[in-house]
């Protein structure tokens, strides 16, 4: 399910079946010229990833809006803010919270997060619409789905 | 004959001109009804179009295989490419079956033999929904309806799939 009116309507009626939250964490910054391309590309890939995961597991997973943050900034206050999100989410019967990101700096702050961090080694360049890229993404999504299922 | 200039009488000349102009007008009148009569042939079909899924009929086995393909879809604001998938196989009557992989419970993606505990069945990973090979939901599992069936057609040995419809309608 996505953060959309139609999906939420369905969610309200089937709350007991949807117990998993996925929050994509995507860094943003415009200041460094040489990293712009890589940054935007990874952002696109991660959105694609989260959408594919959501598609596979629609009936049990809710994909929240992406959490954007400044890349250079200290992760501790960000983690605090994210935990506020989690607190709010847990007012509903959700039991599994997953954060999904390409940003390795979250790995060091994993303990601070109230949920499971899925850090994926990022794809830093390539053509999003090429056949090979589709294959790679399909394959990785399958593995992530497998991983999420192992928590259920 | 060549010496003598052919004479056109006034009567003949008027006859020719009137038939010519009259015929022209009649043709003009006929154009719209004709266009309307053949309209269904000229109609561009956008909805319910069958798409080539790049799968040769000879390659289809009795084991359900997942095929993925893309279609262009106009969706209110934007035109986009949508990826679709289906589980395709030949049933015991040698007929091609194509099931939608979308679980009828809450919409997860089911897979053939997705769980080792339930061989020979479609399995939904979200809430253990199960379907027999013919797409019928296993009683006692969450789904309440059989898997949707794709409109299918074979052209030149290739499989074409259309839209997924509830079982019994396609």
From TrEMBL, chain A:
InterPro entries cross-referenced by the UniProt entry: DUF2487
Pfam families: DUF2487
Name by which UniProt lists this protein: DUF2487 domain-containing protein
Source organism of the structure: Virgibacillus profundi
TrEMBL record, chain B:
InterPro entries linked: Rieske_2Fe-2S (IPR017941), Rieske_2Fe-2S_sf (IPR036922), Rieske_Fe-S_prot (IPR014349), TAT_signal (IPR006311)
Functional summary from the UniProt entry: Component of the menaquinol:cytochrome c reductase complex. The Rieske protein is a high potential 2Fe-2S protein.
Pfam families from the UniProt entry: Rieske
Family: Belongs to the Rieske iron-sulfur protein family.
Positions of transmembrane segments: 12-34
Organism field: Virgibacillus profundi
Domain Rieske: 88-161
Subunit: The main subunits of the menaquinol:cytochrome c complex are a Rieske-type iron-sulfur protein (QcrA), a cytochrome b (QcrB) and a cytochrome c (QcrC).
Protein's recorded name: Menaquinol:cytochrome c reductase iron-sulfur subunit
SUPFAM superfamilies in the record: ISP domain
Molecular functions (GO terms): 2 iron, 2 sulfur cluster binding; metal ion binding; monooxygenase activity; oxidoreductase activity, acting on paired donors, with incorporation or reduction of molecular oxygen
Keywords: 2Fe-2S, Disulfide bond, Electron transport, Iron, Iron-sulfur, Membrane, Metal-binding, Oxidoreductase, Transmembrane, Transmembrane helix, Transport
């Amino acid at each position: 399910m996505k953060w959309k009116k139609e999906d939420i309507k369905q969610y309200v009626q089937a709350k007991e079946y949807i117990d998993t939250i996925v929050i994509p964490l995507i860094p943003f910054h415009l200041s460094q010229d040489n990293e712009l391309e890589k940054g935007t590309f990874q952002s696109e890939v991660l959105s694609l990833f989260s959408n594919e995961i959501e598609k596979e597991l629609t009936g049990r997973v809710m994909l929240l809006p992406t959490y954007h943050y400044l890349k250079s900034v200290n992760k501790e206050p960000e983690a605090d803010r994210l935990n506020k999100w989690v607190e709010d989410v847990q007012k509903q019967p959700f039991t599994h919270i997953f954060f999904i990101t390409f940003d390795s700096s979250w790995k060091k702050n994993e303990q601070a997060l109230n949920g499971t961090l899925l850090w994926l080694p990022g794809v830093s360049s390539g053509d999003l619409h090429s056949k090979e890229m589709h294959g790679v993404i399909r394959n990785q999504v399958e593995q992530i789905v497998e991983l999420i299922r192992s928590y259920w | 004959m060549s010496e003598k200039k052919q004479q056109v009488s006034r009567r003949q000349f008027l006859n020719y001109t009137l038939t010519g102009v009259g015929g022209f007008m009649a043709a003009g009148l006929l154009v719209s009804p004709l266009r309307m009569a053949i309209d269904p042939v000229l109609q561009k079909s956008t909805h319910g179009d069958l798409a080539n899924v790049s799968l040769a009929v000879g390659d289809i086995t009795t084991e359900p295989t997942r095929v993925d393909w893309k279609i262009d879809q106009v969706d209110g604001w934007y035109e986009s490419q949508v990826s679709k998938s289906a589980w395709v196989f030949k049933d015991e009557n040698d007929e091609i079956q194509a099931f939608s992989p979308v679980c009828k419970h809450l919409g997860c993606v089911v897979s053939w033999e997705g769980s080792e505990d339930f061989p020979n069945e479609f399995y939904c990973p979200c809430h253990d929904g199960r379907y027999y090979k013919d797409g019928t939901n296993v009683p006692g599992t969450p789904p309440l309806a059989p898997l949707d069936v794709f409109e299918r057609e074979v052209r030149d040995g290739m499989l074409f799939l259309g839209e997924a419809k509830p079982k019994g309608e396609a």
